[in-house]
Amino acid sequence: MAQVFDVVIRPMGENERRSVHALMRRAFALSDQLAFSWTPNVLVAEGDGQLLGAIVLKLFALPHHRKAGSISWLFTAPEVRGQGVGQRLVEAGLDFFEQQGCDEILVTVEGFNTSSSKLFSTRGFKILSPGAQFRRYGLATFAVWAKLSHYFDLGHFIWMRPAPQSSDSPTLQWWGTIIANSLIGLLILWRLGDSIAVNPWMWWQLPPIVMLLFGVRYLGMVLMARQQGLAVRFRAWESGFMLSAAIALVFVGAMYPIPGSVYPTATQWRYRDLLPKLGRMALAGTLPVLLILWGAWMISQLGLLSTAWLKILLLVGKPLILFDIVMPFFPFFSFNGRRLWDWHKGIWAVLATAAIAVFLICEA
Fold it and tell me: How much of the chain, in percent, has pLDDT values that exceed 70?
């Protein structure tokens, strides 16, 4: 097996595409393989005559005649992980971008992918907040997202080098999340039209319901983190709002909630080391939402809660617990269900059963 000092980084040869593609299939799950794409700029790592990894690089224009580079894909053979091959590929990619005269280098990383986060944070990258993106690129932000495939990577964040100097506001991201989800909910009510009995008051009831359900989720996670001595902050999932709005327009009555999540404030941390704390935070965030939905339904059976309120609660709450509990797999890794699954599969199973029961039993 080749060691780090034996590795040579070079451009991919014209006849190596099939071999690199085979290596990619070994490195990624099927869901990631389906999204894989090539660019004209691919570097490979070779050791002892064998391909050990590759990095796929993209160049594109930014506003004001600026130039950007992005790392589209980075992968190594499973047997050489942890030996520094990925680091060597990243360093070679950064050198390539500098040689091409790039003003900025961008990469998207899933919020709980701590190995990649550490890799880029130690090389001068920092998360570019949604507000900073729009201040920097204006309406061209949407074009930048397209170049980075940032419309479908829910829970991924844009990292930039050189690191942005301005600080971002978790509070603004939180309120932006509430407003965006409320607007999407109102869009759903508009699309429902005459398909259900839409009470005019439901238009006013929806934003408070979004704030309630998202609020208890957030508060539960933050309080549990504080109890465990873990410093955390909220981050919005900006890439999900356009997708959620599109789903609301195309599929009548379908809501794809984009609640964002709570992450450790530390730049470098290991997922496995913090998993027990993250798992308890996920439990503290999902359980209150489940209890509210079950409690509201039982109260409605006693005639103490109006049908309009219950309809809105279920319209928002059902998909929230579906994605936040029941579906811990790709592309829903960023929701709490993944933390529950990785932490304690028994607890996940109990919560998932209760969430599925909400779908089967609770109706307005």
Answer: 96
